[in-house]
Amino acid sequence: MFELDIRSRKPIYEQLTDKIKEMILYGILRPDEQLPSVRTLSAQLTVNPNTIQKAYRELEREGYTYSRPGKGSFVSPAQQGSLAIKRAELRGELLRLMAEAVYLGFTDAEIGELYREASEKRGEESGDD
Known about the structure:
Layout: H1 12-25, H2 38-45, H3 49-61, E1 65-68, E2 72-75, H4 80-103, H5 108-126
Antiparallel strand pairs: 1-2
């Protein structure tokens, strides 16, 4: 379910939060679906349970998940207000990255191709072929 790169400079908890966010955004994890328990995921990934717990806390802080005492962590239902905020933040980040891409010489065609690749990848991962 989750693949982590132990040689990456990116902390493991950030890799995990990014992967879970991606799975939520692509519809692989549905609203109110339960995430694997900290112990289960820790054993599966051979990662310290505290690292998993840190990732889950970060996801909850950002509004991607919620927890129920004694039950575990669940995917939050999409809320229009928080979704709009996330979209605005992502738009700003994309503009920054696009400006950098233009500076580095990316053409309109190359940027368009990157968009198509991302769109195709989303379709493949959510099974919308």
